[in-house]
Design brief:
Layout: H1 10-20, E1 25-28, H2 37-45, E2 53-56, E3 76-79, H3 87-91, E4 95-97, H4 102-111, E5 116-121, E6 129-131, E7 148-153, E8 165-167, E9 173-176, H5 192-201, E10 209-212, H6 216-224, E11 231-238, E12 251-259, H7 263-269, E13 275-277, H8 280-283, H9 286-290, E14 295-300, E15 303-305, E16 310-311, E17 314-315, E18 318-319, H10 326-335, E19 340-344, E20 348-349, E21 354-355, E22 357-358, E23 375-378, E24 381-384, H11 390-399, H12 403-419
Length: about 425
């Protein structure tokens, strides 16, 4: 018979965990839908339980909003993204931002020091196995190495097809609390995205493998693909727009590491035979992506300059996000037979006064190099940069900028060109 760990309240669980750890300990906490925020609330009720702890993992802006470094004045936090909720901790030096891609973050978790892991899992099945459910992206890289393991067993989490599972006997202690998994809401779509979606959909071939970044591009483009045939959705995350493709012939298979959306999405995907939940080691692997025919990576960026470089991390010179899996997916698309590395953005911001096609990046660091991007899409068209020289690339990008900014960009390019 499978040994069962003690079932405690959330408060008793974090107290027990702290008693098992050295004074300065490193604790892995998963992000996306698996963030065990119920246990963060328990730490907050007794801040001494977080004394000296460094929490770490991969949290997603717009999804994971807890600043675990704020649980105690000596607590720290390590992650590969920043979000508005983390700004105070980042400026105070409690949060260490690691500029890692997803594949590099996987290797970081495989090798970094770890003293404990706090997970959120589904209730055990008849064999005593708990599913990682909606989020199996990074946890498989580290959970087996953690000397101490505790979990929130959440009855709201379903057992998802293909998701890795963990024997309940592998946990030192658990709590059983039902809580709504973290979700994601992209918000309303600006008018420009309808045209962006049409341009992108025209670049996607039937029977292609397709990846979407989280956000407005996924919200706009996925419904525009409902008349395509036999697509493989191969993505780090999927959200509610996928629902519009599940009836009909558009989707042949779905492979992802995280489901972020409504209860309706989770309910629909539970038992979906086309779905396989798989970790970052497969979703972002260069070898896997290169082996997919016509792998088409579609992601949003903040700005693109006339060299074809992109910024996805900075606004006004301030770090607001991270590079995440973008470069992994774009380079995988370039290695795929017939693949396409696409980035998309609205041509302007701030009511049309600010061009998002810029002469030079305004960011202090480059997120995507000019070699990483094949095609740039705005509502004004698609600029295919493959095989183009400097002047032709700049010209193609100027042609998809907003008409009000094209003269400025052309003049700026002439100045830049003379300085090269």
């Amino acid at each position: 018979m499978t040994a069962r760990p003690p079932v405690l309240s959330p408060d008793a669980l974090v107290t027990r965990l702290r008693a098992r750890l050295p004074g300065a300990a490193r604790v892995y906490v998963p992000g996306v839908a698996a963030e065990p925020y119920v246990l963060a609330e328990a730490f907050a009720r007794d801040p001494e339980t977080a004394r000296g702890l460094t929490f770490f993992g991969v949290w997603i802006p717009g999804v994971n909003r807890t600043d675990w470094s704020a649980l105690h004045e000596t607590a720290r936090f390590e992650t590969i993204f920043l979000a508005p909720q983390l700004r105070e901790g980042f400026e105070a030096g409690r949060i260490a931002f690691l500029p890692l891609t997803y594949t590099k973050a996987w290797r970081w978790l495989e090798t970094c020091d770890v003293d404990a892991a706090i997970l959120q899992v589904s209730p055990p099945d008849s064999n005593g196995d708990c599913s990682l459910s909606l989020s199996c992206d990074f946890t498989p890289a580290i959970w087996a190495r953690a000397p101490v393991r505790v979990a929130q067993i959440n009855p709201a989490l379903p057992s998802m097809p293909g998701a890795p599972s963990i024997p309940i006997s592998a946990f030192d202690a658990v709590c059983e609390v039902e809580s709504e998994p973290r979700g994601y809401e992209a918000g309303d779509l600006p008018d420009a995205f309808a045209q962006i979606a049409r341009h992108v959909a025209g670049l996607v071939e039937d029977r292609a493998a397709v990846q979407f970044g989280l956000g407005k591009v996924q919200l706009a483009v996925l419904p525009a693909l409902k008349h395509h045939k036999a697509l493989t959705i191969h993505s780090g995350m999927v959200s509610d727009p996928l629902l519009e493709l599940l009836d009909g012939d558009a989707v042949a298979a779905i492979r992802t590491g995280a489901v972020l959306g409504s209860r309706a999405l989770a309910d629909r995907l539970t038992g979906e035979k086309r779905l396989t939940m798989t970790p970052v080691s497969a979703t972002h692997s260069g070898a896997v992506l290169a082996g997919l025919a016509r792998f088409t990576a579609i992601n949003s960026v903040i700005e693109v300059d006339l060299f074809g470089q992109a910024n996805v991390e900075f606004v006004g010179g301030r770090q607001v996000s991270g590079g995440g899996g973008l470069s992994d997916f774009l380079r995988g698309a370039q290695a795929s037979p017939g693949g396409k590395a696409i980035v998309a953005l609205a041509s302007t911001a701030k009511g049309g006064t600010l061009s998002r096609i810029v002469p030079r990046l305004t960011a202090p660091a480059v997120s995507l190099s000019r070699a990483d991007i094949d095609i740039v899409v705005t509502e004004h068209g698609a600029a295919d940069l493959r095989g183009l020289g400097l002047d032709a690339r700049a010209g193609a990008l100027i042609q998809i900028a907003h008409p009000d900014h094209r003269a400025m960009l052309d003049s700026a390019w002439q100045d830049i060109r003379r300085s090269l």
